[in-house]
Design brief:
about 350 residues, globular, PaaA, phenylacetyl-CoA 1,2-epoxidase activity, 1,2-phenylacetyl-CoA epoxidase subunit A, oxidoreductase
């Protein structure tokens, strides 16, 4: 089943069990049974749950993907959060505030899912804080105008949904279940972005130009959210063999392009790619090459706002340290009080 051999098969690992202790023999037997059950769950397209045995690399892959996803939601609050005070009406402000809060919630569901794999949340936060962890490239681009908030909703949340609907069927139970709720909320996010752009593109000439300019800037980076091309995606093959990812990066990118071309027409806006053209034979839109040098540079930390995004995250975390300390001290006090009360009544 495995596309690569992720680790030594337990049967091989048991070859020397006669020389080792009874405990080790039993552990190896448990791993053998666990391995077989895991392979069966994957073959039958069933869920793997936190207490099930799983190969180390499956666990590592999930912690990597789920925590990067959580970090993306948290860092992704910044470009839009920056516009809450400048939203053009009370209604727009309320909607945007709700959306940014949703993104925080998504981050929390995802950190919870990652924790069930055995990596403590503080460790995951630390990886983001120190810049060791990745998050989606898209959030290193600035939101310059109000129309950018429309483009983020329509294109960025649109790409996020296209990528995440198949993840609702991810083999790891807590991740798949978190994605179901997240996708419902993302659908609302995409519609609010579309509606902002529709309003602008049917407003004054200057508003329409602002909407077009936002779409021109976000189109390429949104398509890159799906990850590098398949032949440069080292993780896809194994993740698909494990039913974590259901489709390749390029397949999802194509699905997204096919979806947004008619939506752009309905908006009265154009997409900034002269090679975009319906291909009858393929039954899909052809599209031009994306700037992959730029993508890899952004992923390595050299995008327009990588430094600013992390600096802002660190400052918020540092400034909030006293709240976390106070909450922990209060929880410890409550626990002690409950303990003392139990002793008294015993
Ligand atoms: N940015 O081998 P692959 C959102 C990395 S949430 C940065 O293809 P994989 C909601 C990748 O990690 C958006 N890095 O990797 C929202 C890997 O590095 P590693 C986030 C990227 O995992 C909206 C290396 O390149 N969504 O938008 C990117 O099989 C509005 C090789 O790549 C998710 O995280 C990238 N774009 O496929 C919030 C969805 N692409 O770890 C606020 C879940 C790739 O080996 C406002 N994740 N890399 O060092 C996934 O589906 C997958 O992880 C992919 C990447 C498709 C992102």
């Amino acid at each position: 089943m495995s596309a690569q051999s992720p680790q030594l098969h337990p049967v091989e690992a048991t070859a020397t069990t006669e020389q080792i202790s009874e405990d080790a023999r039993r552990a190896a037997e448990e791993a053998r049974v666990g391995w077989e059950r895991f392979e069966q769950l994957i073959a039958e397209d069933k869920r793997v749950e936190p207490r099930d045995w799983m190969p180390n690399n499956y666990r590592k892959t999930l912690v990597r993907q789920v925590s990067q996803h959580a970090h993306s939601e948290i860092i992704g609050m910044q470009p839009e959060g920056n516009w809450i005070t400048r939203a053009p009406s009370l209604k727009r402000k309320a909607v945007l505030m709700a959306k940014v809060q949703d993104e925080a919630g998504h981050g929390l569901y995802l950190y919870s899912a990652a924790e069930t794999l055995g990596t403590p949340r503080d460790e995951l936060y630390e990886q983001l804080y120190t810049g060791k962890a990745k998050y989606s490239s898209i959030f290193n681009y600035p939101a310059r105008t109000w129309a950018d908030i429309g483009a983020i909703g329509w294109l960025v949340d649109g790409a996020a949904i296209t990528n995440q609907v198949p993840l609702c069927r991810a083999s790891y139970g807590p991740y798949g279940r978190a994605m179901v709720r997240i996708c419902k909320e993302e659908s609302f996010h995409q519609r609010q972005g579309w509606e902002i752009l529709y309003t602008l593109s049917h407003g004054t000439q200057a508003q329409k130009q602002m909407a077009q300019d936002a779409v021109d800037r976000f189109y390429g980076p949104a398509l890159q959210m799906f990850g590098p091309p398949d032949d440069e995606s080292p993780n896809s093959k194994q993740s698909m063999a494990w039913n974590i990812k259901r489709f390749s990066n390029d397949d999802l990118r194509q699905r997204f392009v096919d979806m947004i071309v008619p939506q752009a027409e309905a908006l009265g806006l154009t997409l900034p790619d002269p090679e975009l053209k319906w291909n009858d034979e393929r039954g899909h839109y052809d599209y031009g090459d994306l700037d992959w040098d730029e993508f890899f540079s952004v992923v390595k930390g050299n995008g327009p706002l990588n430094h600013q995004r992390l600096a802002h995250y660190r400052a918020a975390r540092d400034e909030g340290a006293w709240v976390r300390e106070a909450a922990a001290a209060y929880a410890a006090k409550q626990q002690q009080a409950a303990h003392d009360a139990a002793l008294l009544t015993a």
